[in-house]
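A reminder before we start the practical. When you read a complex entry, don't treat the lines as separate problems. The point of joint prediction is that each chain is placed relative to the others, so the output describes one connected object in space. Small molecules and nucleic acid strands, if listed, are placed in the same frame. In the example below there are three entries. Take a minute to note the order of the lines before looking further.
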Amino acid sequence: MAKKGSDTIIERFRSVIENPQGYAKSLHEQGKLVAGYMCTHVPEEILYAAGIVPVRILSPHVSQAMTRSYIHETYCSFSHDCAYQGLSHNYDFLDLITTSSSCIHMGEAFNVWVRFAGFAGKSYLIPYPHIIETKPAASFMKESYGEFKKFLEGFVKKPITDEEIEKAIKVYNHTRRLLKRLWELLRRENPPITGPDVATATLASQFMDKLEFNKLLEKFLKGLEAAPGKGKPGVRLMVSGGACDDIEILDLLEHLDYAVNLIFIDSCTATRYFWFEIPEGRADKLTAIAEGYISRIPCPSKDNVPGTGEKKRLRYVQQFIEEFKPEGIVFLYQRFCSPQPHDIVALRPILDKLGVPSIDLELDSTVPVTQFRTQLEAFLEILKPVVPLE
Amino acid sequence: MNKEKIFAGIDAGHVRTKAVLVRGKEILGYGSAATGFDAVNAAQEALTRALEAAKVSRDDVAGIVSTGIFRDVVKALPIAVQRTVPEYMADAKGALFLNKNSRTVIDIGANVHKAVHYDKDGNLLDVIQNDKCADGVGIFYTTMAKALGVSEEGLSELALASTKQLSVAIHCAASAESEAIGLLCQGEEAADVADASLRFIVERVAAMASTMPLEQEVVVAGGLAKCKALMKHLPVLLKQDVTLLNLPEYVGAIGAAISYEGEK
Amino acid sequence: MAYAVKAWNDFKNYQTGCYRDYLYATEGLRVMGSTWSVLAPLKGLGDDIHLIGGEPHAASTAGTLPDESRENIIAAESAGLGFHSCSYLKLFTGEVIRDKIGITDGTIKEGYPKPDLIWTTHLCNQHSKWYQEVSRRLGGIPMFAVDMIGGGNAEKDSKIVNYVSNQIELGIDWLQRVTGREYSDELFAKAVRNEIKVLVLWGNICALNRHAPAPLDERRLIALFPPAVVDRTTDESVRLYETLFEEVKQMVATGQSVAPDQRFRIVYFGIAHTYGHPEMARILRDVGAEIVASVYTFGTCGNFKGIVNGKWSWDPIDPKWVDELDLSTRRKAIEELAKIVLGWPTWQGVRSYWALESMAQAMIDEYHADGLLLAPSRSCETDFRNGYVGLQRIFKSKIPTIEYDTDQVDVRQMDLPGAQRKTELFVHLMEARKRRSA
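Here is the predicted structure of the whole assembly.
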């Protein structure tokens, strides 16, 4: 079992993800500049180098229809929820809202903040490739980052030095390495920590000042890496899909009537957020950042290798399956997300070859617990002879 | 003897058909019937009830105007409707008739909901109607009453007893109903599920209505305007005061009746 | 009296001819892809290139073969390709899944003609993923997607022009490698000039609708812009649009129109949805309301001055400018081509709410609109749904504005009763406004 000190740290992470707006506000009240960002393609390092703390805008998990008079119904509920954060004035204290040109649904959420929620004068849209694997992408991103850097220098009224950028790169890379070490623990047959707790820590990293987060996670890992397993091993499940910041669903996976271990999450709110590094020590910092972000596991909305039409993301999914050995995959993606089902169709033949069954569940603002429970338990019964929990 | 003419208005809606008899500024009588699968029959029945309530014979009625989704269907004999008027125009006129200070009426119907903005003479200024996914909020209300084993009035009473805020899916009535049942399966209280269901309706209506400026006084038309639990939430979500009307379910029929102008 | 466009049959025949070419070609190269990409690079490979564009093909097939279209869409959904995905591309991919193709002359052919390569772009979140799926299903067809990126004022942003041009250069190298053909810069430059000329000419034709009465209505506009979509690189396509331009200028000079009764002029922001359009048009026509300007028909394969001093302008570009363009080197030709396609209103609006809003305002002003009709398509992620609910909110207090839900080619997604109700309402709002201002 994880030690008592570790319990306190995981509780701290949980408290941040339960009230990320409160955490961001506390940073603001400490006199820090705080920028909200809506997509993980934003080069947070440049913001951090400017002395601005980036905090991710995610769903408040409130059932609301207000945004339907701003964005069409058929945009994913995640984008509606993020738009709602702006319209409900939850983040009025932010100094800046930024995103890179990402998927169109999140673009609409950003547009709502800018057009209707009072952020027109404190917003920045970073032009970003829509196909990440094009050969000229890095040079385009370097130019785009250069413009972003210039904007921020005007915003903070001081130059952003290479030293500051290098420092930020190192801080963020450290976060990435720590998170990787955390997720690696789930490879074990009997991990010392649950998947939902690992997901909780990962989500917290997206809301927190990285220096503060790194300190806590380092301490947490020291305790965990030597700790024994948490309990009886269960069916090993992997989640793959789109943005999912709803720990309730992940908790549900590990609290069915059968023993389950959630051992990997391939999504931009989990491993796709950090599973890469920015090259350190390079003279051209912006190109280094561009290359780092290009090397990420691609978002399905940007993944198309010119010349072959390959989906690079699929290689990573296969790699994770081989390394983490799930017995089944739960595809979790937003209703109305168009790219995800396309990837799933292409992934299925690969999963068939690897002998890993899968199930699809569509996400929404609210969690249909009963329906999900029924589907998941049926899936588990198919996977292998399962012994219900006492 | 009042020499003013008597006009009848029929609001042939998705689920309910309403009829009203109006003379000048006076409502003489009203009646309604389930539309079912025969809108013509329903219109006849509603009109008969209105005539009985008004103690007026069919021959005394100088003209009949229909509105509602089946307004053209009920033109058939034997009702002999002389004119039809679109629902939003009937709503504007009817709301103004019932409240001369009103300038916006929100009509929550069985299938469609809309907000109508009009001037002091009932002339149309702007209208907004729901998008496709938000269809059927009124029908959803009836369905949830059945699912919870209460009458339509009983659903409001049940919701008023709620002590815990729950949420159902907001996308459409089908997913809302599905999640409401799911919540019951999880052991949530019927009162809280009832309230969540009504808040779903109000969320959808308020989201639509707030697309345009809502000039005061704002009134509500349709049978659901009599639902206290629903009307508790509406002003909060609209961030506007809402004035209650007498006979909110007859707004359209009243507006139709007073829209008669003889020869077109 | 309503004018009948003389060039009508030639336009129809050109479109059908392109599809028949693809279907029945026994020599040359079959190329599948998106016609939102730059097309001229393909023509440097030779004059035996047979194109099929996913979007225009789906749009035209839905109108000609509704039952087949429905089967195709269902086939794509059954294959797991996303119920909420773009219906154009569901239809298109569904044909590949069913191994059956139908074209505008009513032909239905068993056995989908396999392309030799796929040349496309990535218009929205899912766009090139359709072609990835088709490539995969057909055994791995070589595929190159140019990231056109889009956005407001994109053609004036040198980093965007360079990014797109660099990709096109790489794309041309790739075309040579994959086909083994020698590339002709002469043919390429000619195709570039033709492509730009057609886009500019179509912009000029649309601009003539600023006159009253507008010479063309939406039905004619929808039918007359397909050649620009399916293949705008040929001499014949240039001839078609030059002829049409002269004809429409003559219509304006003599005060003629295909729909002379125009009591109300409407700006339409939406895709040309196959189902329900006739019903909407009838409701509008009964009161003399005509769509005289539309972002879909104008802005896909049409160019205008664009953002001028921070605001959108629908002023056309002088066609003579095209003749004077310096296309003497491959790079110059690539850059001019990149700029013209980046300049499409629809490429600008797809990723830029402010450009779309500016376009809507400019269209209302320049075309003297009495109403704004918004028809977001439920499965489209580009200009035909993006920002529309916001546009309704912004414009509702300025001009009669109505939004109804539709879909480009999936009749099940079309809200026909709601759309009819709202179109009637739209007419009443315009009438009420007219009475108030009398």
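Discuss with your neighbour: The two ends of chain A are 20 Å apart (CA to CA). What might explain this?
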